[in-house]
Structures are given as C-alpha cells and as structure tokens.
Amino acid sequence: MTRQDLFDAMDLTNQSRNRAKYLDPLINLGWVSQDYPGEKTNPNQRYKITEAGERILKLLTQ
Q1: What separation in angstroms does the CA of 56 have from each of 14, 15, 40?
Q2: Torsion of CA 21, 26, 28, 33, to 10 degrees
Q3: Average confidence (pLDDT) per 10 residues, the chain, 62 residues
Q4: What are the residues whose beta carbons fall under 8 Å from the beta carbon of 26, sequence distance 6 or more?
Q5: 10 contact partners, CB below 8 Å, separation of at least 6
Q6: Fewer CB under 10 Å: which end of the chain, C or N?
Q7: Cα-based distances in Å from 49 to 35, 54
Q8: What whole-number distance in Å separates Cα of residue 58 and Cα of residue 49?
Q9: Which positions ≥6 away from 47 have C-beta within 8 Å?
Q10: pTM (2 d.p.)
Q11: 32 and 49 in contact (C-beta within 8 Å)?
C-alpha cells in the first residue's frame, strides 16, 4: 500500500514527521518493507508487512 493509504488507515496525515515517528521505526525493525529501499520519496514507493511483522501483529491481536 502507499504511504497515503497507510496513514489514512491510521487516521494520520501524510507528513514527514508522521513518517519519522511511525513508519521509519517499523522499517528499521524489519516489520515493514519497501519496494524501493533507501528512496523514501519515490512516487512509486509501496510498503508491505514482512513475515516478522505478521508474527508481531498476530501476537498483538490475540
């Protein structure tokens, strides 16, 4: 999903401070991956949950 879609789902605005506060830590932990790593502002950038992220999500929602 795009960053806009992701932030819409979380009721957040698509601003760089929200990216730094919420999205970047998930990427650094390896729970979310990017289609274009290292290119945060690529217009075609998409994000997806990793296997590790799926396991964490499953633990949190039990």
Answers
A1: 24, 25, 24
A2: -130
A3: 92 91 95 92 93 95 90
A4: 32, 53
A5: 22
A6: C
A7: 11, 6
A8: 12
A9: 1, 2, 3, 6, 23, 27, 32, 33, 34, 35
A10: 0.83
A11: yes
